[in-house]
Design a protein that fits this description.
Strand content: 15-25%
Number of strands: 19
Radius of gyration: 22 Å
Distance between the termini: 32 Å
Largest sheet: 8 strands, mixed
Number of helices: 16
């Protein structure tokens, strides 16, 4: 029979929950991770369909730096989790682009490329751009008690051309903002550094490599993991989280509870409930994503240079909840074949397109209508994205196509539990991870560290700050 009391219970086996579990288990804590689904990873997982494995969430792992570069989030992560760099087998991107209607900016894992592009295409903005970059470099983005600032306001002090401002915000928002049309400046700094000052990479075999490493580290450290084992309630007694009740009615007790499932989602589990507080900080930004699989490599059609393309064809970039089921005016193209894999290569061509969507317009459709609408928006999103790539005849692509799939906000809600299918969770982040209960903490998306590396650092930080340092203080 499994034990029912733990030093720490962690809700959710996503990147942040796994990282928190590894960190705590390394220091002898008795830890149990509870996951409702049958696969770990949360927002960054994978699934099998018709004999193929598809990544979910992982376009690229941000915060990449070459070996030997010190003082970066990636280095801190590897050190804190006792992971050798080679275990993640990261392969850097080739190049990426920000592609707007009348202007484009290239960037790579060498910041000098983007720096030169901005200076060449926006000469009057060069001085302000340099000031912004210096502000980003010196800002303390890991402070757990920083006061919130509007990123639009801070960027506007340095960048006066609205086109350049929109081009900077497009990648940063698509890869991390839970807020419409703006984001908190600390969040902006985290993503600016992760995308532009550091960069993109991925393992040849995708997110499964990262998950295998994390699961093995957790197992080797003595942690316990229960899959297909969701939490139904968190019971408050004498002002503390006293018990967690599982979906099957089993009860566990713990000295500390760390939740990676989101702020609103966590508060709605609590008894007594905190529904009003949860609803006041529930996210609304969701996505659709199309996945096309081809028997040929993208390079065969002239699509071999770009790894990620952030596109927009509107007069202004509008990062907000879609008015229709999807907003295909802007989005993200990911070509996973276009990383520097060395001697390796993906056996099939992959083409992914991500666009903003509206959860309410997908959530309650009858199945036949849902499938028809998926097909409509799949075709529309792909057509919109292809405008930003070298032209290829439709018949050529159709002949080479092997498989397709698509997820919607409804899919996101089903497999992550995030209300409204909100990819990046609550618009207001809880940087110190504290809740109304002194032994219930948040990690992951709603704590505020972003991206895969950021999620893992969130788990580490909350484990260190609330449990390990707390134990030392007491």
């Amino acid at each position: 029979m499994k034990d029912s009391h733990y030093d720490v219970v962690i809700i959710g086996a996503g990147m942040s929950g796994l990282a928190a579990g590894i960190r705590l288990a390394h220091f002898g804590k008795k830890v149990c991770i509870l996951e409702r689904h049958n696969a770990p990873g949360g927002l960054n997982s994978f699934y099998s369909f018709a004999g193929r494995k598809y990544d979910v969430g992982l376009h690229a792992m941000t915060n990449y730096v070459p070996p030997g570069v010190k003082g970066t989030p990636l280095g801190k992560l590897l050190r804190q989790l006792r992971i050798e760099r080679d275990e993640f087998a990261l392969c850097p991107q080739k190049q990426s682009r920000i592609a707007f209607r009348d202007c484009g900016l290239k960037f790579t894992n060498d910041f000098a490329v983007l720096d030169a592009e901005v200076a060449a295409k926006f000469p009057p903005q060069a001085a302000g751009w340099r000031q912004l970059v210096e502000t980003v470099r010196t800002y303390d983005d890991v402070s757990l008690d920083a006061k919130p600032l509007s990123a639009r306001e801070v960027v506007g002090r340095h960048i006066t051309d609205p086109l350049l401002a929109d081009m900077i915000f497009c990648p940063v928002m698509y890869y991390g903002s839970a807020q419409e049309r703006d984001m908190e400046f600390g969040q902006f700094v985290i993503m600016f550094k992760a995308l532009f000052l550091e960069g993109f990479a991925r393992p040849l075999d995708g997110v499964r490599v990262i998950l295998r490493v994390l699961l093995e580290k957790f197992r080797a450290a003595g942690g316990e993991r229960r899959m297909q084992c969701g939490v139904a309630r968190i019971i408050e007694e004498q002002g503390r989280a006293a018990r967690v009740v599982l979906d099957d009615g089993t009860e566990l007790t713990a000295s500390h509870v760390i939740s990676s499932i989101g702020f609103a989602e966590t508060l709605k589990l609590c008894e007594p409930p905190h529904a009003a507080e949860a609803e006041a900080n529930t996210g609304a930004l969701s996505f659709i994503e199309t996945i096309s699989v081809f028997r040929r490599q993208p390079a065969d059609w002239g699509w071999g240079d770009d790894t990620i393309i952030f596109f927009n064809d509107s007069d202004r970039f509008d990062y907000s909840r879609a008015k229709e089921q999807a907003d295909i005016r802007s989005g993200v193209i990911c070509l996973p074949n276009n990383f520097a894999y060395g001697q390796g290569q993906l056996p099939e061509g992959i083409f992914r397109v991500t666009c903003l969507a509206n959860y309410d317009l997908w959530a309650h459709l009858p199945e036949e209508q849902y499938q028809a609408d998926k097909k409509h928006w799949f075709d529309a999103a792909v057509r919109s994205a292809r405008r930003f790539l070298p032209p290829v005849d439709d018949a050529v692509l159709a002949q080479a196509q092997l498989a397709t799939d698509m997820f919607t906000p409804r899919t996101i809600k089903k497999f992550t539990g995030h209300f409204n299918g909100a990819i990046y969770g609550a618009p207001r982040k809880i940087r110190n991870g504290r809740t109304h209960l002194p032994n219930l903490y948040l990690c992951g998306t709603d704590q505020g560290f972003l991206g895969i590396v950021g999620a893992m650092l969130s788990g580490i930080s909350m484990a260190n700050y609330h449990v390990l340092q707390g134990s030392a203080r007491s």
